[in-house]
Amino acid sequence: MASIVQRIREYLQTPKGRENAEKAKTMARDPENRQRLRRLMDQWRGHRTHH
Fold it and tell me: Of 4, 5, 21, 31, which residue is most buried, by most CB within 10 angstroms?
């Protein structure tokens, strides 16, 4: 089974993947979106450690 990192790399090779990567980069430049993403990642990490 392919690792998640491997799958992401393969996805980013596709035209759709590149398009979404560009959108993500654009959104990441927005401070409000960065804050939202950071909170989401913190939540995700928090949930992962409880299992």
Answer: 21
